Amino acid sequence: MSQQCHQDIRSEKAALDTVAGVAAESAPLSVATVDVGADLTAAAFFDVDNTMMRGASIFYFAQGLAARKFFPPGALTTFAWQQLKFRVGGKELSTAEIRTHREHALSFVAGRSTRQFVDVGEEIYDELMADRIWSGTLALAHMHLAAGQRVWLVTATPLELATIIARRLGLTGALGTVAETVDGVYTGRLVGDILHGEAKAAAVRALAIREGLDLHRCTAYSDSANDIPMLSMVGTAVAVNPDPDLRETARIRGWEIQEFRTGRRAAKIGVPSMLGIGMAAGAVAAGLAYHRRPRD
After folding, report:
1. Which CATH architecture has domain 40-292?
2. Over pLDDT 90: what percentage of the chain?
3. What is the pLDDT of residue 271?
4. Of 84, 78, 24, 46, residue with least CA distance to 224
5. How far apart are CA 56 and CA 129, in angstroms?
6. What is the pLDDT of residue 25?
7. pLDDT tens digits, one per residue of 137-196
8. What is residue 37's predicted lDDT score, i.e. its pLDDT?
9. Could you tell me the CA-to-CA distances from 223 to 7, 54, 64, 125, 252 in Å, in that order?
10. Residue 8: is its pLDDT beyond 90?
11. 203 φ/ψ angles, rounded to the nearest 5 degrees
12. pLDDT at 196
C-alpha cells in the first residue's frame, strides 16, 4: 500500500473521529443489533431536516430548550425566521448561516452538562419531533434494515440529538456535528467543522472505511442540493422532498425522486427494484398524516 494511501486512510479516520465524537477503533456508532444474515457491505445514509423529519430538528430543539428557560424566548426569533424560510422555500441554509446559528446556540449551552442535554433531548423529541417524522422516509429506512443493511443518519444537527433521533426510529446510528466538552460539560465551541456539504461526504467515506462498506452498494437520501457530494459518492442516490436545485440535478442524473410533502403521486426517476417495494403505501401514509395536521 502506498504512503499516500496510508495518509488518505488516516485522514478519513480523523474525520470520523471528529464527527462521531469517539475513537474509531473502540466505540461503535451502532445502536441497533445486526442480524447474523446481515448484508454487511451495503448501508443507507439519511439526511434529517426535511428528509427524515418535516422542518429543522435544531429549531424544534431550540424551541424545547426555550420552553425550559435554557435561554431567552427572544433568542428564538432568528431560528423561527429561518425555519419559516426553510419550510416555505424548501432550501436549506448556507454553511455560513448554519455556522452563525450553531455558534449562537452554543453560547447558550456553554457550562451545561451533556447528560442534562441528552435527558432534555429525549423529552423534546417526544414533544416536538416524533409527530413530524415523514412516514414514507421512515418506511424506506426500515426497508433497508429489513434487507439486513445498516442505516445511519448523517446531519448537521448536534450529535447528541441526532443519536436520540436514530435510536427512537430504530436505526443503526448517527453522524452529527460535535460540540466540544470538558469533563462532561459543554465549552461553547465546536469540535471540527459543521457536518454539512462536503463534510458529510467525508464523514460517510470515513465510516465506509471503518465499517467495510462498498459505497457502490450503498444508498443516500437527502432533500438538499448541499448534499450532492454525499449523494454522488454512493451507488444509489434518492432525492426526498427535494429543493429546486436538487430536483433539477436528480432529473439530469437520473436519480430517483420521492415527494412526501403532499398526497400527490411521487415522481420516480430510475427506481431500483428494491426501492419500489412498499413505496406507494409509504407515500400515501405520509400524505394523509401531513394533511390531517394543521400547518405550523
Report:
1. 3-Layer(aba) Sandwich (3.40)
2. 46
3. 36
4. 46
5. 10
6. 31
7. 999 999 999 999 999 999 988 899 999 999 999 999 999 988 888 998 888 787 877 888
8. 57
9. 33, 11, 24, 21, 16
10. no
11. -65, -40
12. 86
Return the exposure string of 74-99: e unless at least 16 CB atoms fall within 10 Å of the residue's CB, then b: ebbeebeebbeebbeebbbbebeebb
Task: Take residue 175 and report the three cell numbers written for it.
Answer: 453522524
Sign of CA dihedral 247, 59, 94, 221: negative
For residue 150, give the DSSP letter: E
- Backbone φ, ψ for residue 140 (5° rounding): -65, -45
Question: What is the reported pTM?
Answer: 0.73
Q: How far apart are CA 198 and CA 196, in angstroms?
A: 6
Task: Name residue, grid cell 444509489.
Answer: 236
Q: Which grid cell is 192?
A: 471540527
Helix axes 159-168, 114-124, angle to 10 degrees: 40
- Residues 87-124 have pLDDT tens digits of 444 455 555 665 555 556 566 677 788 898 899 999 99
Q: Which residues pair with 147 in a beta bridge?
A: none
> Rounded to whole angstroms, how far apart are CA atoms 229 and 32?
27
Q: Grid coordinates representing 202?
A: 467525508
Nearest to 132 by CA among 64, 224, 32: 64
Catalytic residues: 47, 49
Is a pLDDT exceeding 90 seen at residue 250?
yes
- Strand blocks (E) in 12-148: 43-46
User: Residue 49 to residues 39, 231, 233, 274: CA-CA distances in angstroms?
Assistant: 27, 15, 20, 24
C-alpha 204/C-alpha 12 separation (Å) is 9
Helix (H), strand (E) at residue 222: strand 219-222
| Amino acid, single-letter form, for residue 251 | R
d(CA 207, CA 175): 9
- Cβ atoms of 30 and 145 closer than 8 Å: no
Read off the amino acid at residue 82: Q
